[in-house]
Design a protein that fits this description.
It is built from 11 helices and no strands. It is mainly alpha-helical. α3 packs antiparallel against α5. The protein starts with 14 loop residues before the first helix and ends with a helix.
């Protein structure tokens, strides 16, 4: 069993994600690249979200290490999942552009860590966060599979923004358990935010 098997898209609960498993059949090495990269990013995300004993500093240090690795700075020793990233068929994709998109995604994970503790974000911060998550993921996939970036226009960004908002609502329970808010909480000063229950009550007052 490959070391990254538990993180591969085929193990996800969402059928849209599981369908990534068919990409190698149609795109060969480029499809395998996407599947392996998904597993790596899932590992990074789980490591940050599910290791409750890690301090914020330890999480940011971990993400800084991964961002350095993606940028091309290889540490003396690699973890098994870091080796998965290094061993991807990079020659088959526009490497420089894809690495850039991956680091934007890792930067959004860093943003989540910095906002742990139920720190509310403004609507502008939320839109910027969405830009740093959905766009690089969609564009990175286009680069990997088609060798060129996706077409970007206002309609595309509105779609990605709506997709992120729906996803944030669906994952609200998990996010609150991790002390992270991916939806703006209007007119609520930070000093008044102390419990997940308060956040849920405030969000109930606004239609999304």
């Amino acid at each position: 069993t490959p070391v990254w098997d538990q993180y591969r898209p085929g193990n996800e609960p969402y059928s849209s994600v599981r369908k990534l498993e068919i990409l190698p059949r149609f795109f060969g090495d480029r499809g395998r690249f996407v599947v392996g990269l998904y597993a790596y990013l899932r590992w990074v995300d789980d490591y940050v979200d599910e290791n409750e004993n890690l301090t914020k500093k330890q999480k940011t240090n971990f993400l800084e290490r991964e961002m350095g690795l993606v940028a091309g700075f290889t540490p003396e020793s690699l973890t098994p999942m870091e080796s998965v990233l290094n061993d991807l068929p990079w020659a088959k994709v526009p490497e420089k552009l894809v690495r850039h998109r991956i680091n934007i995604i890792l930067g959004s994970m860093m943003d989540d860590v910095e906002h742990q503790g139920l720190i509310p974000r403004t609507e502008r911060e939320i839109r910027h966060y969405n830009w740093r998550t959905m766009w690089p993921a969609a564009d990175g996939m286009s680069l990997a599979l088609n060798g060129k970036p996706m077409k970007l226009n206002k309609g595309t960004m509105n779609f990605l923004d709506s997709y992120m908002r729906i996803g944030s609502l669906e994952g609200l329970g998990d996010d609150l358990n991790q002390g992270v808010l991916k939806l703006s909480v209007p007119d609520l000063p930070a000093e008044f935010v102390s419990t997940a229950k308060e956040i849920e009550e405030k969000l109930d007052e606004k239609e999304f």
